[in-house]
Design brief:
single chain; 421 residues; alpha/beta; Lyase, Ornithine Decarboxylase, Chain A, domain 1; TIM Barrel; nine-stranded mixed sheet; globular; binds pyridoxal-5'-phosphate; diaminopimelate decarboxylase activity
């Protein structure tokens, strides 16, 4: 459930008509709902209420400081995958002891930043990284709590570009070799083994891959404890999917996901960490855009809009679907017809949807791409020198610009021409 609904004939974010935001901020613009973010975060907390837990928001899904502050103030931890994300989490007021550092290739500089600033746990992804962290921590006189990310070789049954738990993926250490790696970790200076980490992919719409992976984590916990390791935390990753199509079967709910966690690892007495991103913020955001032209093509009509693949990359990158809806509520029974909704960027891949069923549309009309809060703004670029897309946060009947659209001057000022040119 989200808070983007029609009121008095117009699509609103909570109590704010999107037309008002378009008039004041311009388009394209991302619009997030604070009430939806709060609600979704609460659902995960509720799903794990049966145990000690920390819900660590996956910062990579939406890293705006205002979004991080909102969630951090609710008690969320943060899952970061770079020094930049660590800096964002800290700037949003999240203490280091609520930040988990994930990511396949942490540099020494990034790990130093985390040790200096404070870190709850580093999730190790390889033996060379483990040795590098050990050497660094020892040289700094620090002891860093660590978990090893294991690759359980489970098929997440999701899009191949966002599956991470099969043995051919680059993530983690093969679970069969875990005992050996934990033995080395325990022997190295500067590291304190605290748990096990797993993350099998994103946009999972079925609980069975989670169940399979978590059952393997439970077995590994018992093995490692028998080997003398103090496993007190399990980081079970993120990945629970969201409904991208309104008319589709909805993916499982956080409460059902929490039940799978309880059934698989609930008897181990571990603190549970999870790292949801998409499920918290995906349906808490829309991308608001304006129709520039309606163009008659051969056998199809194009809706040329002012958002493009540089603003919302998922359709071009993954063939992803976002429901597209008009901001003006169509009359009941109004006829619809198919449009190919495209952006102005000079790439055929800049197509959001072919054959989107929409009512009569005209230049100047507003549309919204739904479910755009996760992996939307964070993947935006300035390709075609289109200034970085702005972001707005709505709460009740008010809103604030939480990232302003750069002016052309600001965009150009980042380049410099050497004096020898
Ligand atoms: C991407 C990622 C997540 C978040 O995944 P969602 O599908 O957005 O929930 C969590 N943990 C790790 C390690 C990730 O790489």
């Amino acid at each position: 459930m989200d808070h983007f609904n029609y009121h008095r004939g117009e699509l609103c974010a909570e109590d704010v008509p999107l037309t008002r935001i378009a008039a004041q901020v311009g388009t394209p613009v991302y619009v997030y709902s604070a009430a939806t973010l709060t609600r979704h975060f609460g659902l995960f907390r509720q799903a794990l209420a049966w145990t000690d837990h920390l819900v660590c928001f996956a910062v990579k899904s939406n890293s705006n400081l205002a979004v991080l502050k909102l969630l951090g103030d609710l008690g969320a931890g943060m899952d970061v995958v770079s020094g930049g994300e660590y800096a964002r989490a800290r700037a949003a007021g999240v203490p280091g002891d609520r930040i988990v550092f994930s990511g396949v290739g942490k540099t020494v500089a990034e790990m130093r930043m985390a040790i200096e600033g404070g870190i709850r746990q580093v999730n190790l992804e390889s033996e060379p990284e483990m040795r590098a962290l050990s050497a660094l921590a020892a040289s700094m006189g620090a002891v860093v709590p660590v978990a090893v990310r294991v690759n359980p070789d489970v098929d997440a049954r999701t899009h191949e570009k966002i599956a991470t738990g099969k043995s051919e993926n680059k993530f983690g250490i093969p679970i069969a070799r875990a005992a050996e790696v934990y033995a080395e970790a325990a022997a190295l200076p500067g590291l304190q083994v605290v748990g096990i980490d797993v993350h099998i992919g994103s946009q999972l719409t079925d609980l069975e891959p989670f169940r399979a992976a978590y059952a393997k984590v439970a077995d590994l916990t018992r093995t490692l404890r028998a080997d003398g390791h103090a496993i007190s935390r399990l980081d079970l990753g993120g990945g629970l999917g969201i409904p991208y199509r309104r008319d589709n079967n909805a993916p499982p709910l956080p409460i059902e996901y929490g039940q799978v966690i309880r059934e698989t690892v609930g008897d181990l007495g571990c603190e549970i960490e999870i790292e949801p991103g998409r499920n918290i913020v995906g349906n808490a955001g829309v991308l608001l855009s304006q129709v520039i032209y309606v163009k008659q093509g051969e056998g199809r009509d194009f809706l040329i809009v002012d958002a493009a693949m540089n603003d919302l990359a998922r359709p071009a990158m993954y063939g992803a679907h976002h429901d597209i809806v008009p901001v003006a509520e169509p009359a009941v029974g109004a006829p619809v017809r198919p449009f190919d909704v495209v952006g102005p960027v000079c790439e055929s891949g800049d197509t959001f949807q072919k054959g989107a069923e929409l009512p009569q549309m005209a230049a100047g009309d507003l549309i919204a791409f739904r479910s755009a809060g996760a992996y939307g703004a964070v993947m935006a670029s300035e390709y075609n020198s289109r200034p970085l897309v702005p972001e707005v946060l709505v709460s009740g009947d008010h809103f604030a610009v939480i990232r302003a659209r750069p002016t052309f001057e600001e965009m150009l000022a980042r380049d410099s021409i050497p004096e020898w040119l």
